[in-house]
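Please check what follows.
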Amino acid sequence: MNIFHTANHHQHHPIDEFFNGERVDNPEIPQRLDNILDALQTNNFSPIAVEEITNEQAVRSAIAQLHDAEYVAWLENVQPESALYPSVFNPGEIMSNHGSPSVQWGNFATDWFTPLLPQTWQVAFTTAQVMITAAQQIIEDSEQSGSSNQVSVALGRPPGHHAGRSKVGGYCFLNNAGIVAQHILDNSDQSRVAILDVDYHHGNGTQDIFYHRDDVATCSIHADPQRKFPYFAGRESEQGSAAGEGFNKNFPLEEGVTNQRYQQVLEEAVAWVGSTKPQSLIISLGLDTHESDPIADFKLTTEYYQQMAATIARLNLPIVVVLEGGYSTAAIGANVVSFLRGLSS
């Protein structure tokens, strides 16, 4: 098991967000990843820091196939002096040269949770490099060993599964799991991969990107969007369209989900993923399903993550684990360790 992480993630440190009209602390902070790395090292895992961009062409190629060019160019070229929030939201045609940066930001932002900071692009791009590194590792390991029991782990901030083709939101700017999937498809003989999203919140950005495609099957287990972010996506009826019809699956859940209840749904989700015949699996791993998470309401225990991972591993596929949410900084390290033990048991 190879574990990669961003060395520069501290440079992206959002201080606050606006929630229900009030300024509150932003929970997507560097301590999340710091605590994971500390727990991994304490438990004899050896994470590898990705300190520089070594494969920029591959990174840009994957990003270009997932995200609109104007969106990417704006993120890369606008470097605010401080945290930038949208002053308005544009529901129509993009007008990226109109008004001040805070007005332009409204072309691409979906919420007031996700400020653009001076170093956000550089950190997000380095995180994309982590994704490419983990994806390439799984390709090479699978080809060299001929085994399907390969695992690679990509730990990066900011997370990615709420980032759509041309929208940021939910603390996400580039779709990290999508970058892994695209790189595998482009650089191996695999014709289909799957993304299983076990974050508390629906992976609406991932769904947006792959909804019309059949080479990436997407499955998400999450809080019902009738009551929780992202609100406007994640319903059971959303099953893909055009070539992607039947390749998108959502499991919206009620408040207070326990280990037993989650396991029942996970068994269904894993069976569905297997039915799509993927050749690799990307896991969007959110730890905000934990009972101590401050912004969620599921009741999963630290010990359960090992069972969760072992259940997913029954698919007998090469796996890339991508870090998404999880905001209980006190518990997140132990939760990741538990999950990785389940994959390696």
